Amino acid sequence: MKTISKTIRFDLIKILQDLILSRHYTPGQRIREEEIIEKYEVSRTPIREAFVSLEQEGLIEIKPHKGVFVATYTPEEIQDILLIEGVMEGLAASLAVKSLSDNDLKTMEGDTGKVENRLSKRFDSELFYQYDRRFHHALITGSGSPILIRILEKQLAQIYLCRYYTITAPERFPHSIREHKQIIEALTSYVEPTTGKKPVLFALRKEDARLINIYGDYVGDVVYALSEEFGNQHGPFLPTAEWGLGSMRGLFALAGPGIKKGVELERNVWCLDLVPTLCYLLGWPIPRDAEGAVIYQALEDPGPK
Fold this sequence. Notes:
By secondary structure, this protein is mainly alpha-helical. The protein is 48% helix and 8% strand. The chain has four domains: 8-70, Arc Repressor Mutant, subunit A (Orthogonal Bundle); 75-190, Up-down Bundle (Four Helix Bundle (Hemerythrin (Met), subunit A)), CATH 1.20.120; 192-250, no CATH class; 251-305, no CATH class.
């Protein structure tokens, strides 16, 4: 049994909205008061108040002497609703260009790639439907406009109910994924108007990032780097990035017996190089799976042992 708070009416609106949009109830299906009363232990009054609100949102139809049913739409109504959605989301996307963070874009792109990979093997209408909801919600909230978000959120439920008719068709999947990729490409290819530069220096698929020694289970689906001119947080910059008095360069220092003194290395030192180097100095066997190399340039006697 699901527990609801004292704000029963608002809780019921959210619960019923989720049940409809998660396709627990399908278009045209009757929603029985008795089922809700038994499951949530509430009276008929807050249920009927919630029904009125959901009818105003266009999610249900209250038919006198017949009951409450999930709303259905004609092809013409669906076309009108999706036309309005396209205009409003177009505005949201134009604002999201400046408001979406790099992590937001990375999440959207990674989610799209994962879903495309899974659905290309076997189409799953529920997986695709939930993914589509996440994508469009991220785009709308990414606009950063409280007024636009508020307006669209009132329409989102009706829009997603309309999508029930279109998003579940297997032939719709490739088209939607292609559209989403185009949206992401448009966002990542954004040129900052005052400088005329693109903030993103490069973006690589996880599979391609191995070329720059980035790989493993904890690597995201997209690896990217920003120009140091954009943003001031750690993380999305190249290790060579420098701006003002700051630098992303890491310091590598090695001292002790057998180590050269006062030498500044010209070669790049990778974290992978540390284990082979320490094993070499200690006379230990280098692990078979070690991928780095001994930093011979820092050793007084780099000959074989």
